């Protein structure tokens, strides 16, 4: 008789090299998340202070060459330019996960992909249900509550000091990365009002040259940066949101090293260089220019919370994300007959699902694209995103803190290295027994 097949495991630890790399990524994102929260708080306080007009004047200040149609406001430069860096890093991360990370295994990739899809579909349906009868194009913002802000979520984890196990942090990161890819696809397809074909076709020329150089492992910034900038300018000129250029450039970078030996591959090299810029500067600056909504200017908090758009965003983020991520995870478990990894329960999945309801960066961006920056509806979107993210954070805090004693024990097990070879024993045991 043969050995019975092992049941697949959900939310397992994965490999030690991947766990170590993701731990480094999460440290950078956590610091960036704290800066993001601080920048958003400063903007919100300033916009509602007696000096609110100065804040609005700053966001509407135009700079840039008009001849190239780049005389943009500072808020537009943050949304179109700085977020291109954010999506470039997201493209690098996503490609690396599926080419060289644990997600190259379809069995491991199925869960975060399914969770990301479920976490986008359910919030979108909830938003549409709330706004279907509101008229005035309210349903145009259906994609607003579909995004997860990994930096904000990790900042919440840092503040509440929960000892979340490595497998759950990895799942949250990969879920958010896939979420970012789906969000940029939605922006490119559904939020492009007019398309100029010639600039779009021309954009592929510098993009192709950039791809050729990086495939040859060229790292010279004075060659690559002008090509990346020209790609961004032409995509912006085409009418497609310029952040799409960031993702395409990220996908062009090779992940695998050509020769064995020490040192980083090119994708990891670029990620190491640009992630601090993205997390520490680009995203916080965008948050500063995007989050400063004037409560009085949007008709007061009561009027905003009574608007169908605001309610759709709040319920979509809080309930939609929780139901979508938790439900998709359960369906994967149901149809694959998998079991949760040892030591984890469905309460842990619920806590992560609530944490995924913290939508900020991409949600605010889609709100601007759907209703126009500075419009009353856009102000209502900002209030909805802020309130929904805050409620999701509070609910996730309650669930995760209740489980924190258990997490502390799991984390202690993950740090034991009896043979002092630099690899925790649990990862060596996992390698021996299989997933």
CATH superfamily: Na+/H+ antiporter like domain
Overall pLDDT confidence: 86
* Strand and helix order: EHHEEHHHHHHHHHHEHHHHH
Q: Judging by the overall fold, what is the CATH architecture? A: Up-down Bundle
* Secondary structure: number of strands: 4
Span from first to last CA? Answer: 22 Å
Biggest sheet strand order reads: 1-4
Q: Which stretches are poorly predicted, pLDDT < 50 over at least 5 residues?
A: 1-5, 431-435
- The global form is globular
The percentage of residues in β strands lies in under 5%
Estimated helix fraction: 55-70%
Query: CATH class, anyone?
Result: Mainly Alpha
Number of separate domains: 1
- Helix/strand class: mainly alpha
Q: What is the makeup of the main sheet?
A: 2 strands, parallel
Radius of gyration: 22 Å
Family: Belongs to the NhaA Na(+)/H(+) (TC 2.A.33) antiporter family.
Pfam families: Na_H_antiport_1
Protein name: Na(+)/H(+) antiporter NhaA
Catalytic activity: Na(+)(in) + 2 H(+)(out) = Na(+)(out) + 2 H(+)(in)
Account of the protein in words:
The chain contains 17 helices and four strands. It has 435 residues and is mostly helical. The chain has one domain: Na+/H+ antiporter like fold, CATH 1.20.1530.10. A hairpin with an 8-residue loop joins strand 2 (62-63) and strand 3 (72-73). Helix 4 (106-131) runs antiparallel to helix 12. The protein is globular. It starts with 8 loop residues before the first strand and ends with a helix. The relative contact order is 0.18. Mean pLDDT is 86; it is low at 1-5 and 431-435.
